[in-house]
Amino acid sequence: MSRRLGGWLAAAGALAVLSLGLPWSPLTAGTGAPARVAIVAAIVLVVLGVSRGRDRLLPVAVLVGAAGVLVGGLSPSPGRLALAAAVACLVMGLRADGRRALPGR
């Protein structure tokens, strides 16, 4: 893993964790939103992909994170925007490191 990718992954992780504490609707924070499953799954995929050298898990984490953004609608809430920014950081880091941002051949 390059230093460039590591910086982007750190930013993505911080934003993903932050999204859990921010409001996703007037009544719930991210910890009460259905997207929390996708947030945690994406973080686990990134950690497993980096720690075990399984680069194929990183693009899957992008899809899982994007699904988390879309779960429950597209309202521009702070939590949803933070998660979208986390997914964008993950994509930018993968692209900067010369890796695929989406699964494929």
Question: What tags apply to this protein structure?
Answer:
single chain, mainly alpha, 4 helices, elongated, 105 residues
User: How many runs of DSSP E, i.e. beta strands?
Assistant: 0
**Number of distinct helices:** 4
Poorly predicted runs? none
N-to-C span: 21 Å
Largest sheet: none
The proportion of residues forming helix, as a percent range, comes to 55-70%
Instruction: Give the integer mean of the pLDDT values.
Output: 85
Q: Strand content of the residues, in percent?
A: under 5%
Please identify the structural class as seen in this structure: mainly alpha
Order of helices and strands: HHHH
Radius of gyration: 13 Å
* Overall morphology: elongated
Task: Outline the fold blueprint.
Layout: H1 3-21, H2 36-51, H3 57-70, H4 78-96
Helix pairs in contact: 1-2, 1-4, 2-3, 3-4
